[in-house]
Amino acid sequence: MGQTLLLTGRPGVGKTTVIKAVVEALGPRAGGFYTEEIRGPGGRKGFRLITLDGEEAVMAHVEFRGPRYPRVSRYGVDVEAIAQVGVEALRRAMRSGRIIVVDEIGKMELFCGSFKETVLQAISGPYIVLATVMAHPHPWTDALKALPTLTLWEVTVENRTGMPERVRRWIEQVTRSAAGVTP
Fold first, then answer.
1. pLDDT single digits (tens) 67-91
2. How are the residues of the chain apportioned to helix, strand and coil, as percentages rounded to the nearest 5?
C-alpha cells in the first residue's frame, strides 16, 4: 500500500506554490498535474491544467458557456479537458511508478467521473501521492480526507514558507520506508 499526503487550506494561501516547489525538487520522479490561474484584463478569467510532462489545457473559463460546461461560480468547466489531459497524466504517472501529483481535488475536477475514479485508484494503490484538496466541505472530499490511510496537512500563511521542505522530507521518509531502509 502506498502513502498519500493531502494539503488543504483556504483559497490563495499557497497550496499550488508548495506543490510547484516540491515538483521542482523531485524532477522526473514526479508525474501528474498542477493548475494555475489564467489572468486577463479585469482579473482572473479561468484555470489552466498543466501536466508535469508538458501538456496544457484550459479546464475552466468565464467564456465557456452552454450545457456541456457545468458551472462553478462564474466559470464553465471543460470536463473533457480534465479527463483527456489531467486524468491521462495521472494514469501515465501510475504506469511509470512515479510520485503522483494532483493539484487540485476541487469542485471543478469533481465534475469528472474518471478523475474521481483515478484519484481513488492512486490513493488505494502502491503509489506515493501528493495532492491538494479544497478546504470547503464537500461530501466526496470530506470522505476522502477521513480515510485513515491519508496524512492531511493544512497550509497556512504562517507555515507555507517551510511547507515545501516539510513535504519533501515526508516524501523521502516514505520512499525510504517503502524500500525497506530504516532512517
1. 999 999 999 999 999 999 999 999 9
2. 40, 30, 30
Q: How far apart are CA 38 and CA 144, in angstroms?
A: 28
Task: Supply the pLDDT for residue 164.
Answer: 97
Burial class (CB in 10 A: 0-12, 13-18, 19+), 157: exposed
Per DSSP, 10 falls in state S
Please state the φ and ψ torsions of residue 82, each to the nearest 5 degrees: -60, -45
Return d(Cα 27, Cα 47) in angstroms, integer.
23
User: Is pLDDT at 142 greater than 70 in this prediction?
Assistant: yes
Is the pTM of the predicted complex or chain greater than 0.70?
yes
Is 95 domain-assigned? yes
Range of the domain at 63: 3-178
Spatial distance between the Cα atoms of 173 and 183, rounded to a whole number of angstroms = 7
Number of domains making up the chain: 1
* 140: its cell numbers: 466526496
- Identify which of 83, 85, 95 has the alpha carbon closest to the alpha carbon of residue 127: 95
Per-residue pLDDT tens over the stretch 90-113: 999 999 999 999 999 999 999 999
Residue 183 lies in a domain: no
Cell numbers at 72, concatenated: 462553478
Residue 114 placed within a domain = yes
